[in-house]
Amino acid sequence: MAGTRFAYVRSYEQPDPLLPNTFLVVRVDGHGFHRFSDTHGFEKPNDMRALELMNHAAKDVMEAYPDIVLAFGESDEFSFMLHKSCTLFNRRHSKILTSITSHFTSAYVFHWSAHFPNTRLEYPPSFDGRVVVYPTEREVKDYFAWRQADTHINNLYNTTFWALVHRGGLSTAEAHSRLKGTVSKNKHEILFSQFGINYNVLPAIYRKGSVLLRGETTTTPGAARDGQEGSAEGGMLLIKRVKYTP
Ligand SMILES: Nc1nc2c(ncn2[C@@H]2O[C@H](COP(=O)(O)OP(=O)(O)OP(=O)(O)O)[C@@H](O)[C@H]2O)c(=O)[nH]1
Ligand SMILES: [Mg+2]
Q: Does residue 37's CB lie within 6 angstroms of at least one atom of ligand 1?
């Protein structure tokens, strides 16, 4: 193409480098997963198969991109942190974002049948993605703390909501209004006094999300459910709490 009269169009492609020497966080999020989870019969409020499929896709992404040192997942989202000095694709924004989002999506589809052996994939799921650039460790730690706080808030709400519906016989509208204006303590009380559920002993993967760390010490992916440590191949760590050592 070079040298033709058409070649000038190339100059319309703009460079899009991400700021050097900053932490990069790529977050992918399932597109329309409210519908997707309904169509595919995900259990409410948490479907272990779906969470493990997300973790599996994230592990594949980490194996494909060694610059990712930490990942955190909950619900239909996963955040990947690339280290500060990463030079992947010369730090081109669109290249990094689309490659990771695309790899995650195809890995999700690729491993679908291993996690949902009896559920046909009805249509192609997709994920959106964004890159956020953080200048210091403080923002990065706060970022992951924010996502984990979100996991906790959503899970406590959803667990109480579905207990009221499934076990308390309330309609979804009634459960909504029962929970309106309640704080965390009230939800713990409803769960315990009405349904005998001690929220704090529910699987950690539901309450705190999944963490994958690149490192020597590892725990088995399933261990996040009961917080036990063990060893696994692949150099991946799944723990119940965000631990980040720069
Ligand atoms: N039943 C069930 N649903 C889940 C589970 N994990 C995620 N979901 C669904 O996925 C949704 C994720 O939230 P959002 O990302 O805000 O909703 P979304 O429909 O994907 O919308 P967009 O991300 O804006 O496209 C939840 O609201 C649930 O409906 C699960 O384990 N069980
Ligand atoms: Mg979503």
A: yes
ipTM of the complex: 0.99
Sign of CA dihedral 81, 62, 28, 162: negative
Encode pLDDT of 179-206 as tens digits: 999 999 999 999 999 999 999 999 999 9
Residue 128 labelled as part of a binding site: no
Question: What pLDDT score does 1 carry?
Answer: 53
| Residue 32 annotated in ligand binding | yes
Please state the domain extents for the chain: 15-143+205-240
CA distances to 30, 82, 90, 180, 191 from 43, rounded to whole Å, are 17, 32, 42, 23, 18
Element at 77 (helix H, strand E): strand 77-82
Instruction: Output the CA 77–ligand 1 centroid distance in Å.
Output: 9
The CA distance from 169 to 194, in Å, is 12
Specify the pTM: 0.89
3-class DSSP assignment, residue 184: helix
Judged against a pLDDT cut of 50, whether residue 111 lies above it is answered with yes
The CATH class for the domain spanning 15-143+205-240 reads alpha beta
Separation of CA 92 and ligand 2 centre (Å): 25
Dist. CA 158–CA 152, nearest whole Å: 10
Q: Cβ of 68: how many Cβ atoms within 10 Å?
A: 23
